[in-house]
Write a structure and sequence with these properties.
Alpha-Beta Plaits, alpha+beta, 12 helices, 2 domains, single chain, 5 strands
């Protein structure tokens, strides 16, 4: 909406600038015509302009100044005001300045150009009879109203009507192009969304909603690369569900999947935007934390461990599962393999020491 309003304001400003330019050019042309056609002895240039042209230009300038106020303070009326001003300016140019020039009534095509810019057929439909009425009024005000004048009215009216029909064609064609562009944009957006979905599906574990093994390896590679290792210190935790084979054997694999989802949910609940959690495989998870110290990382993992241990699973007779965790703080000097081996070794230490605990190595 904001962008649309900004474009509307820009076009209103452009049209008003065109009206100022047309008025200025008309003044210059009228001055030149007056100078060339006036008798310098009986009709001095300045007196002729003061009598014939100056009042019209004062009215035109006053109208344009009023338009400046309208488009700045009453923008909802800007369209109608600009179209009305184009009609009034055309009448002034023909009636007060160029009444002796036979092709001057063609000036009534000018409102067509202004109206077409807004791409609204209703505006154009109203402008057609208004322009023809203005044409007849101008001929009526500039006698003689004879057979040649009637022929001129018919010819100019035909030109105006034909021009306005062409304007309808321009608007219709423009709408077709806009619709075609919108369909193209919608198709591109749908393709983009599909690509995003496919990309996400390729990175996510479908059961738990965490990242998958491949995504973890890619991110882990970046964090341990020589370019990033010192810039982004982190802690690696390997989490394993205790006695998971017993869960599957006792309650079935469907209940095992429920346990996996619940553990993943507890992990995800404590993740911050900079953290990274993934299902490594089977009942094993990995978490990359960006805490300021290993103590802060341990505190976060302890909250996760306790939440999992006290959350009953209905399908397991409301018994919870527990997890063992191995934690290692990356030093920036070791390889990716060594880093993971230490975290994994800490996990096995937790298992050997009784499970449902965290070991830091």
């Amino acid at each position: 909406m904001f962008i649309h309003a900004a474009y509307e304001k820009k076009w209103n400003r452009t049209i008003l600038s065109i009206l100022w330019l047309v008025t200025f050019i008309a003044f210059i042309c009228h001055a030149l015509i007056t100078e060339l056609l006036s008798d310098p002895f009986s009709h001095p240039f300045q007196n002729h302009m003061l009598k014939d042209g100056t009042p019209a230009y004062f009215m035109a300038i006053a109208m344009l100044l009023l338009l400046e106020l309208v488009i700045r303070k009453f923008s909802s009326w800007a369209h109608l005001a600009l179209i009305a001003a184009s009609h009034i300016l055309s009448c002034m140019l023909v009636l007060y300045l160029y009444r002796d020039i036979h092709v001057a009534p063609v000036t009534f095509v000018f409102p067509l150009l202004v109206t077409c810019i807004f791409f609204r057929p209703l505006y154009l439909a109203v402008s057609v009879p208004v322009s023809i009425a203005e044409l007849m009024w101008v001929f009526w005000e500039t006698p003689p109203f004879d057979i040649p004048a009637v022929i001129a009215i018919i010819i100019v009216s035909s030109i105006i009507a034909g021009s306005y029909l062409a304007g309808f064609g321009v608007i219709a064609r423009g709408k077709m192009l806009v619709q075609s562009l919108q369909r193209s944009i919608e198709s591109e957006q749908e393709l983009l969304i599909q690509n995003i979905i496919m990309d996400r599906m390729s990175k996510m574990d479908p059961l738990t909603g965490l990242y998958n093994h491949k995504s973890f390896q890619e991110y882990f590679d970046k964090l341990t690369s020589p370019e990033q290792s010192k810039a982004f210190p982190f802690q690696l935790a390997v989490i394993d569900i205790d006695n998971f084979k017993r869960v599957n054997d006792t309650y079935g694999h469907a209940v095992g999947d429920i346990a996996l989802k619940q553990v993943a949910s507890s992990i995800q609940e404590h993740m911050e935007p900079n953290d990274f959690a993934a299902r490594y495989g089977g009942e094993e998870f990995v978490v990359l934390l960006h805490e300021p110290s290993v103590e802060a990382a341990y505190s976060k993992l302890e909250r996760i461990r306790k939440q999992i241990a006290r959350t009953p699973i209905d399908e397991m007779n409301r018994l919870p599962v527990t997890v063992s965790i191995g934690l290692h703080a990356y030093t920036g000097q070791e390889s990716k393999v060594d880093c993971f081996a230490k975290a994994d070794g800490a996990l096995y230490a937790s298992k050997n020491e009784g499970k449902n605990r965290i070991t830091v190595l």
